[in-house]
């Protein structure tokens, strides 16, 4: 594996299956004792409710806290590290916990103040189904973490810091001796990119299959921590609301099910994926806030015109109570979003991650809201504007710029990053790949773009546009042309107020800065290069990669 430290002893050789659906892995054998099949049912050991799924999984839930205190698969314990259990946030504390069996389903209900949490088991399945109903902010419940014993699964992926010791930012970004960086934040993936996360040894797989995230926040392109590995053990997460780099207020209500799934080494069954999972067996269990299939509706669009077929298009639905999304078919833009709670939503069409169209739709229980073909006005896509020159296309992402791909799974100081400085010449053919995806006040502010204008172009005023996807510490671009004209300092747009550029996410609120450059700013000699300087300004006094900065989407000079 890339970056494996051969100097440290490893008790078990494994290769790890990545979080994205469809990944493949090879692994060495993991010896685990076989367990005789037992009857489906539950017992009480005095401290815990003990559930035997009748397959190879037995789990325990504390009768006093609702913590998951044991996950035993084929006789081997996987749960826990550092004396900690698996639970909501860092544990709820004293709670009311009850258990009931209804035919082939066992449900454990946990109540802590206004929060309710549930564990369900189905006869013959190696799965634990979970729901979390957060009613308000009185209880902190932004995540569920499955804590996994050290050594059960080993990896040295970007979200692992098993073999690192040097902290380079806060207490959660690490550097290896070879200069590569590691952090639990470096998952690479957006919510839309994965169905499950976890690990495999080749003979045992442990996964968390995510829910549909209808009560989460941030939409389909949100990035958050999914798992981690350290010397202490591993963690798998279902993040319901995460304080870092959030673009929306949190939503309340029942979220789930999300699933803890054991396998014989392979990926979890696709029948557990949020787009496929049916839970009619849970309809009558009395889960607070539960809405079955009959109480939900669907939105379908016959097509989308005005698309740039070089890019994927995603259709999102959002209101204060819920969020959903679906992919538009590449051939004609057809889309269908099912399982939607009744209500009125803002429907947004995204070209890659850039919003290019929005409207309102109303969904009713048991019904389908059918939309006629959506026509995206040409003016809604900034790429359609006539430009003298353009660096990168407008997609709502920094994709294509220097270091852009690396920054979803590494720190900017990572040894693999190309130098963050360097200027750009229009017409060189490397304008985009040479331009850094991020600009910081204390790292590479003052980047220069060289370009020539014809006599007619130099005789006219032009609009310069700089698109950004997020910013840190109110960093925003101020421009200087030929050292003779300086723009005003623009007002900072609304952006998340936490780290972003250094913890694997460029996702904030897309914003376009426009600058009206007068004709007097241009050079009249058509053989000379005009010089555009891009500075990052902010009142922040932070330094280095935590200084004020911004992520770039595209830059162009309009005709």
Number of domains: 3
Write the CATH architecture name of the largest domain. Answer: Distorted Sandwich
Main β-sheet description: 7 strands, antiparallel
Sheet with most strands: strand arrangement? 7-8-9-10-19-16-15
Q: State the low-pLDDT regions, or none.
A: 1-36
> What percentage of amino acids are in beta strands?
35-45%
Describe, in plain words, how this protein is organized in 3D.
This protein is mainly β. It folds into 3 domains: 242 residues, Distorted Sandwich (Beta-galactosidase, Chain A, domain 5); 88 residues, Sandwich (Immunoglobulin-like), CATH 2.60.40; 177 residues, Sandwich (Jelly Rolls). The chain is 1% helix and 38% strand. The strands form 9 sheets. The chain has a 7-stranded antiparallel β-sheet, with no helix packed on it. A 5-stranded antiparallel β-sheet has the order 1-2-3-4-5, with no helix packed on it. The two termini are 50 Å apart. The relative contact order is 0.11. The N terminus is likely disordered.
Short summary:
The protein contains two helices and 38 strands. The protein is mainly beta and 559 residues long.
Any key phrases for this structure?
single chain, 559 residues, mainly beta, Beta-galactosidase, Chain A, domain 5, Immunoglobulin-like, Jelly Rolls, 3 domains, seven-stranded antiparallel β-sheet, five-stranded antiparallel β-sheet, 2 helices, 38 strands, globular, disordered N terminus
């Amino acid at each position: 594996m890339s970056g494996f430290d051969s100097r440290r002893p490893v008790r078990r050789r494994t290769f790890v299956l990545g979080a994205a659906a469809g990944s493949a892995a090879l692994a060495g054998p993991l010896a685990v004792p076989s367990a005789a099949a037992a009857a489906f049912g539950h017992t009480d050991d005095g401290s815990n409710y003990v559930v035997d799924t009748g397959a190879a999984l037995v789990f325990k839930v504390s009768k006093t806290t609702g913590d998951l205190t044991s996950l035993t698969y084929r006789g081997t314990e996987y749960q826990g590290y550092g004396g900690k259990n698996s639970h909501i946030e860092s544990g709820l504390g004293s709670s009311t916990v009850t258990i009931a069996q209804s035919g082939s389903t066992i449900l454990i209900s946990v109540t802590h103040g206004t929060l309710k949490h549930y564990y369900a088991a189905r006869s013959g399945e190696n799965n634990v189904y979970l729901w979390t109903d957060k009613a308000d902010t009185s209880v902190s419940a932004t995540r569920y973490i499955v804590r996994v014993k050290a050594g059960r699964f080993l990896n040295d992926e970007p979200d692992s810091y098993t073999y690192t010791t040097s902290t380079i930012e806060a207490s959660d970004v690490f550097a290896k001796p070879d200069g590569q960086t590691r952090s639990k934040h470096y998952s690479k993936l957006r919510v839309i990119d994965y169905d499950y996360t976890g690990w495999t040894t080749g003979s045992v797989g442990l996964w968390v299959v995510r829910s549909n995230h209808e009560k989460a926040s941030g939409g389909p392109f949100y990035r958050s921590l999914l798992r981690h590995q350290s010397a202490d053990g591993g963690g798998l997460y279902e993040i319901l609301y995460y304080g870092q780099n959030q673009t929306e207020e949190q939503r309340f209500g029942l979220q789930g099910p999300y699933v803890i799934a054991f396998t014989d080494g392979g990926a979890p069954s696709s029948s557990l994926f949020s787009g496929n999972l049916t839970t009619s067996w849970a309809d009558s269990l009395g889960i607070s806030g539960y809405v079955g299939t009959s109480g939900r509706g669907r939105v379908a669009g016959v097509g989308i015109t005005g698309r740039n077929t070089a890019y994927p298009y995603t259709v999102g639905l959002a209101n204060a109570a819920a969020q959903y999304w679906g992919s538009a078919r590449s051939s004609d833009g057809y889309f269908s979003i099912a399982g939607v709670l009744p209500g009125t939503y803002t429907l947004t069409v995204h070209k890659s991650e850039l919003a290019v169209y929005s409207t309102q739709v109303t969904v009713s229980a048991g019904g389908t809201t059918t939309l006629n073909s959506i026509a995206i006005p040409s003016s809604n896509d900034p790429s359609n504007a006539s430009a003298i020159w353009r660096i990168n296309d407008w997609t709502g992402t920094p994709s294509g710029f220097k270091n852009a791909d690396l920054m979803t799974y590494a720190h900017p100081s990572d040894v693999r990053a190309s130098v963050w400085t360097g200027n750009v010449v229009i017409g060189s053919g490397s304008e985009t790949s040479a331009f850094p995806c991020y600009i910081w006040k204390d790292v590479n502010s003052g980047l220069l773009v060289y370009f020539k204008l014809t006599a007619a172009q130099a005789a006219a005023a032009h609009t310069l546009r700089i698109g950004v996807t997020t910013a840190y510490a109110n960093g925003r671009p101020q421009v200087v042309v030929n050292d003779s004209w300086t723009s005003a300092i623009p007002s900072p747009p609304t952006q998340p107020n936490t780290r972003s550029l250094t913890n694997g996410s460029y996702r904030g609120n897309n914003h376009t800065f426009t600058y009206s450059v007068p004709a007097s700013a241009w050079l009249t000699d058509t053989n000379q290069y005009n010089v555009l300087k891009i500075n990052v300004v902010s009142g922040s006094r932070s330094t280095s990669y935590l200084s004020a900065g911004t992520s770039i989407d595209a830059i162009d000079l309009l005709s």
